[in-house]
Write a structure and sequence with these properties.
This protein has about 290 residues and is an alpha/beta fold. Helix content is about 30%, strand content about 20%. The protein is built from seven helices and ten strands. α2 crosses α3. The chain is globular, with a radius of gyration of 18 Å. The chain starts with about 40 loop residues before the first strand and ends with a helix. Bound molecules: adenosine-5'-triphosphate and magnesium ion. Magnesium ion binds near residues 82 and 193. It holds the Pfam family ABC_tran.
């Protein structure tokens, strides 16, 4: 993308330090890219989530360790528990069994270390786009909150609607404001639930490249839920495929395609091969949902 990333993203406190400590416990069937072998940031240990009296758990016995600065994509058929798992990582949902560790500490509720982009936008309707994005930095007492918000709206291509209300923006625009808002407090962890699902193909492609550009500079740990196999491979270091009834990890794939990645990688042999492998697994899992 032509636009540069704002200087606010080049602050040293954004950048992850070099890998230290023991290698994370990773459920991978393939070699893990070296930059993913960093200290564990998020660890799920035997996590089970039940809703109501349902006989089958929404998520059952899921263990997953995500390294600091790693970009993980979560794929799987509708209803397999992706959003539930993300809510567990965000501290919004407490598992009935198992635990979540964030930087080695048990997660007992929402953490300021996690920025969340929800599947549906969740902007404050009584605030302008700019004030929505500036909300987090203001709560942190940052005197340049307005500037941070303006820079981020520029990055997501919405500087021209900074003073408009969410209700006057399209669904995709609202979602982009939500992304800017999640980035505004510079969280070391970004949890994103189908953030680009409502965007048209061109905007989606631009946003993917912009997200990679931001990630490359700041190296937050990202968990990115998507239904789009190509999007998952294009973005991630690791693709985790879930299965349904109950929601579990079916398989994991290391994505060892070199970075930086541009749209051309979609034609690379390695990309096509990964897409074929993942499509095969997803097809089997999706078929099970049509029982
Ligand atoms: N608040 C809730 N109350 C009851 N059941 C729920 C609740 N949230 C999720 N579920 C159930 O848990 C299961 C997993 O739902 P979840 O939303 O995590 O799936 P998902 O993989 O994100 O699906 P999608 O791709 O359609 O967004 C589903 O069977 C769903 O009906
Ligand atoms: Mg979901």
């Amino acid at each position: 993308m032509a636009r540069g990333v704002s200087p606010i993203h080049q602050r040293a406190d954004y950048i992850e330090t070099a890998p230290t400590g023991p290698a994370p416990h990773l459920h991978v069937v393939d070699p893990v890219p070296s930059h993913a072998q960093q200290k564990p940031r998020l660890s799920l240990d035997g996590v089970t989530v039940n809703f109501g009296a349902r006989a089958v758990s929404a998520v059952q016995d899921v263990s997953l360790t995500i390294g600091a600065g790693e970009f993980v994509a979560l794929l799987g058929p509708s209803g397999c528990g992706k959003s539930t798992l993300l809510n567990v990582m965000a501290g919004f949902c407490t598992p009935v069994q198992g635990r979540v560790l964030l930087d080695g500490e048990p997660l007992t509720g929402p953490s300021a270390k996690c920025g969340v982009v929800f599947q549906k936008h969740s902007l404050f309707p009584w605030m302008t786009a700019l004030d929505n994005v500036a909300f987090g930095p203001r709560r942190l007492g940052l005197t340049n909150a307005r500037q941070i918000a303006q820079d981020l709206l520029d990055i997501v291509g919405l500087a021209h609607v900074a003073n408009e209300w969410p209700a006057s923006l399209s669904g995709g625009m609202q979602q982009r404001v939500g992304i800017a808002r999640a980035l505004a407090t510079r969280p070391p962890v970004l949890l994103m639930d189908e953030p680009f699902g409502a965007l048209d193909a061109q905007t989606r492609s631009l946003m993917q490249e912009e997200l990679l550009s931001i990630w490359d500079k700041l190296r937050p740990t990202v968990v990115f839920v998507t239904h789009d196999i190509e999007e998952a491979i294009f973005l991630a270091d690791r693709v985790v495929v879930m299965q349904t009834y109950p929601g579990r990890i079916a398989r994991e794939f290391a994505i060892d395609i070199p970075r930086p990645r541009s749209a051309e990688v979609l034609n690379d042999h390695a990309f096509i091969e990964r897409r074929r492998e993942i499509t095969d697994v997803i097809r089997v899992e999706a078929r099970k949902t049509f029982r």
